[in-house]
Sequence to fold (788 residues):
Amino acid sequence: MSKQYLTAHTVDQAHPADIFSLAPTPTSLLSASGSSSLLVHSTTDASFPLQQTIAAAHKLGCHHVCTARGGVGSVAASVGFGGEIKIWSSDGKEFHLEWEITPATWASNNGNGNGNGAAGGADVWAIALSADEGYLACTTSDGRIHVWDLAAREKIQTYETGARGGGSFAMAVDLSVDGRLTASGHESGAVYVFNNDAGRTVYSLSGLAKPVRAVAFSPGCKRLAAAGNAGVIALYDMEHGEHVGNLTTPSTRPAWITSLDWNETGEYLLSGSLDGKVKVWDVARGVCVATHSETEGALWSVRWLPKTERALAPGMGKGEMFCAAGASRSITFYREATGS
Amino acid sequence: MPSIPRRQERRPESWQNSVVSSGQNVPVSATINSSSSSLVTVPLTSHSSALAKIESLMESMLDAVIAGVELPIPYRTVRSAPAGPGIRSSQNHDRQSDIVRFPGRTIQEAKRFEALFCILQLSHEALLSGKLITKRNIYYQNPELFKSQSMVDDMVDNLAFTLGVGRTDLNIVAAAKGLVSGPIDLVLNDGSVNSYDLLGSTGSLLPPVSSIQQIDFRCIKWVLVIEKEATFRTLAASGYAMSSQLGHGILLTGKGFPDLDTRRFLCLLHSLRSNMNIFALIDFDPDGIAIMRTYKNGSRRLEHEQDATVPRLRWLGIHSNDILSSNASDHEEGVGSDGSGASQDGSSQESGASSSYGSQQERPAKRARMSRMNPGPIESVCPLTQRDRKKAVEVMKEIIAAADGCGEDEFEQMLELQRMLLLNIKAEMQAVDNFGDITRWLDAKLPC
Fold:
């Protein structure tokens, strides 16, 4: 039994450069690219019109933008290639710059005794917002994971994955919806899970051996999915830290996976890869139920859109939607085929 | 065989005139060495002022000897010594003022005096004879005295600054670094002809650009600038300059970051034949891009130098697509029939988007061919180091700071640096070769 997804709309050449990251709110989609602007697209209209352009957000381009999974969508965060993190808040209509964490802030803010000045020595990479939009986790290229309290504007936690910053590049990070766990994926292939209440590592998960480019907790916080250069999606149980399965298609040399996202029910996983393919996986059955390849160029980000109450257009139904973007510079929206 | 237009700022007068006006009796015709010699005979400009200053310095020392007092050499150190004639423009920088005396208070000072005196003497000789002396050659005059090459380099620049002249005014130059291979002849000032297509040659050193009188381009159509000497040597040995599908061309390398003379030579070729294609073959890493930008836009340290940039330099490779191509074209066979059905639907619906992408990048057909040729470039990538990542961000900042309105080439450089950082990979140009043979890749890449 397969799922049928159709292309609902494509925003052609949305950015003038590679689109590196997508982040949905209940009513919009933020996109970040190699150019300096962040774009906000409305997802309540079938033509996905541009809602806001945040010009000159990141001078050297932006590699990560995130919103809270399951959040109300009033906070977003973005990281530029220059190493600066910007926190944006929305009044319901537009996003405004709330706060900026510059590389200089890193050096001076040593948190509550958890940090140690060296944080400024490595660049900031991946970010994740907690579901309540109060905390931001960010990784560094020397393998640290910092957690910031956004209200207090201070760093409250630093997880080390190597001796004094000697850790492997943390390429991906995620926070569980219940706020209890943080996961990081590393260049070395390692995946770490931290308990935020206890402030310590709970699981060190192996199995991928190649760089991990995406980690994602299931909405129920029971599973963690991780993927990267190995080209397979590894699933781990979060109760005991066991490797419970792999999602993979038979292929001699599977393409690097760059992005992962769970749907709202936790039944389906979305993956995007360097060969331009976006796939929908049925997690319970462990099979790929849909593959789309719009482009030969790399996909850098794939995301489900939060379910909406009403159909976008007559005849479109209320099925789930997802979107994908990457080197083609366009954003493609997909919808579940009606009547299936 | 077009003649090189005389550029006034480089050679104000003919060489003989300037020497005659300074009242020196200098042999007009000097013997010429081959291009690879460390001692070459054609000066850039003979500044009589440098000669006069050295001689007055010597006179004052002679006076000191007669008077029986300490011998002084004024010597001011430059903190970060800028090389070349730019010294004159930075008179106001903070420099430590000093005089080195003999016998002096310490043995170090005495040694320093000896070293300085040695350089002055060599420079004086070079100016009198109208020859150029390399810094390397100075070092080998007395390695024990100079201890290291960098000590000579610093002393020469400091001495030039103290005397208020440029390094080239002292007739002291850096040893030739750039290599050329291909069917081209360079006619030097003395009438000798250097050919670079000798059988079995793996490339020859460039003569100083100021000594080149004429260039015989023969029928060359392109210039390939190669970052690495090893790749250059391999291509030169295989005679690629003659056997390329694109026709005859020349290969050039500055062995990593290019020296000024190599860049000047490339600029000269470009200014004489502005319609000739000039390509760069570099590693896919931040240093490779920085090296290409040095050829193309000049370096920050020597940005006052004229005639040393080639804005038309085109980046041939290697790009992220060259590395990722095998990944992209590796089609899966075993996907469930349902899944592949959806895939077909999707691609037919979106043909517009994919074709617009294809036109901007390279043609998919070519890409597929390349990946068959190379079993797996993606297997030969390395992760970036912390230094690489910092360097990448530095280069990106430079691009943004330098480019007003950001040209297409700068845009491409930004994009490739961003992809490099995102994937956290770099790759040597060897990643795309075929067991050491990069010629097939080049033939496929060079635009016919």
